[in-house]
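Cast an eye over this sequence plus tokens and walk me through the fold:

***
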Amino acid sequence: MKDLDAQLLKAHAQDDKAALVALYEQAADAAASLDGACFYLTHAYIFALELDHWNAKHLHARLAMHGRI
């Protein structure tokens, strides 16, 4: 997770929102709890919405599956 954190910080510093979508989803997949996963999925979803990213619907569905939308 340390490497992923470094990648997230770099993507934020570069304002690389497409990378942030993917990295936050990876963080969600690696999260130790459902709350943690949904926290990261929410971030991925917000950046996806900002970009009209192709993965936005999938991220929305993942959050909805856990009652977070």
In short: The longest helix spans residues 34-51. Residues 24 and 43 are 6 Å apart (CA to CA). The chain has one domain: 2-65.
